User: What shape does this take?
Amino acid sequence: MSRFAALGRVARCQLRDVARSRWVIAYALFFAAITDALIRFGGGGERAMLSLVDIVLFVVPLVTLVFGTTYLYNAREFVELILAQPVRRGAVFGGLYLGLAVPLSLGFAAGVGLPFLFHGATDAYAQLGALVGVGVLLTLVFSAVALLIAIRADDRLRGVALAIGAWLLMAVVYDGLVLLAVSLFADYPLERPLLAAMLANPVDLARVALLLRFDTAALLGYTGAVLRQVLGGPAGMLLALGALVLWAVAPLALAARAFARRDF
Amino acid sequence: MPLLASIVLLAQLPTGTVVVSPDGPVRTLARALELAPEGGRVVVRPGVYREATVRVTRPVEIAGDSGAVLDGEDHRQLMTITADDVTIRGLAFRRVGASFNEDRAAVKVVGARRCRIEDNEVEDGFFGIYLARTTGCRVVNNRLRARGRTEVTSGNGIHLWSSDSALIEGNTISGFRDGIYFEFVRGSVIRGNASGGNIRYGLHFMYSDGCHYRANVFRGNGSGVAVMYSRDVEMTGNRFEDNRGSAAYGLLLKEMADSRLVGNTFIRSTTGLVAEGADRLEARDNDFIDDGWAVRLTASSGGARFTGNNFIGNTFDVTTNSRQAFSTFEGNYWASYRGYDLDRDGYGDVPHRPVRLFSLIVEHNEPSLVLLRSLFVRVLDAAERVVPALTPEGLADARPAMRPLARQTPVAAR
Assistant: This one.
């Protein structure tokens, strides 16, 4: 069996497993319900999208991390079984990752995208595309982080705790530290260090990239001008995209290495 | 009025009429003005006229046919009026040309009364229409355009200095330094003008008490509109739109006393309204929509009252630089209000505090704006809302409306 055929087969097994667990369906329905409600009651498509930005940045990393770690612990016996076969570990790992990231991404994209298409609520397809694209990238990033945590931590409880800890760190604590640094170093020009700080955290990066797309008037001030200069425009979108992809690839490589060396 | 009526009468007398045309007996406006009797009429036939600055020293009416153009060839003022009761109508003024030595204008009126400047066109003006020491002048339905690039190399569209009882109505102004400029003007009205795409201000207004401007549209000017150092100014039904940039705002009120701001719309601007030292400002029935900062109110503005305004879709509704509140808010609609209305009187039962903790942080430290909409900031804001420790506790709307307040004219078409 070729390497990719094996990868595909593992991914397919996992996809079926994930689909059977119905979690992904619930995840998609959750986004569909929220999006639908926002379009209906939130005052139009553009405004619904701006509200969705908050929800996406909050829910996608959290759910992906928690679901991803438990997913791998649940697949433990399957992994042990399959590793007993003459299959390369790389293929198994790739299959595991795709089996996690693909259904979550699809569930998210369908949940957010379909209500907009159904209502015909927006002409701003570029913005909708940015929202869905960034959400999918976040799913890819945090799927990789979840795998890394689950492979490194033996104990299921510890793994889930680590996942939630990682989420807290990136979604909440990090920004607190940034704010602390901003107030401590208020006398210095901070725009560029802050920009670096935003690039160094996928949640912040996703947030800033989306806010620039959504044209919030407050971001047209001086700080916004610096952000726009670097992250606005097509080149800026590419930079943000590249940084997010890097954020997916780095933990994925670490997780792959840990998976290859691990004694099951 | 009898004087005006007599002008009209005289104008109808064919004997008082002199016709200027490129190929007729009278070929320059200067010659025509020599021939025309006091109170007479000069008709300008289509054609391009290039002559030394036209000096109007007697009461006359100059009426241009469509296509009558006065061309300054980029190096002179086109017309100077020093007489009372002069009417300039239907002329096109072209290529005034920038000057660093004089306030060169398409039409300059100095020390005159009751001038009427109507239905003219200014193309490539330095200054457009310039009124100094005038009384009772009307500047109506003119179209003014300039192509200035920097503040120092351009002048103002309609410039009033030390004048009284002027009416500025229905003009369209773009590309100047300031669209409309008022300095030491009394009791004048600015109505129904569109001033947009000017380099600095759409309207620049200083030391002008008792003036009134209404139903104007100011869109996309470099900084917005500045109204300063005046008292008793009435601002009604204007639209301040799309003023974007780090130092841009819809309207700046600076050192203003006893002014009324009623029924205006502030939309899609980095900052909607900035009030610095605006004492006893009455802001009523305005719409603040999709602005970055809807209202920036400094502590130096004492006794301002905000009632019946709509705050919808702004990143920050109100910011201030003080923990004390010197202004009152009542009966406004806040889209960000999270309270309830159990007695169903249309007003929320718990007060709304429009100043967010994060807006204070940003006020003190602008770069922290990068954390806008982050979860941490939400948590901070929520905590602050429950137990106000840093935001001005007194700055609250005790009767926040539950629904957007209806306007006679529909709320800003979006």
Notes: Residues 375-386 of chain B form the longest helix (12 residues). Chain B touches chain A through 32 residues (CB under 8 Å). The two ends of chain B are 44 Å apart (CA to CA). Confidence is low (pLDDT under 50) at residues 5-13, 410-414 of chain B.
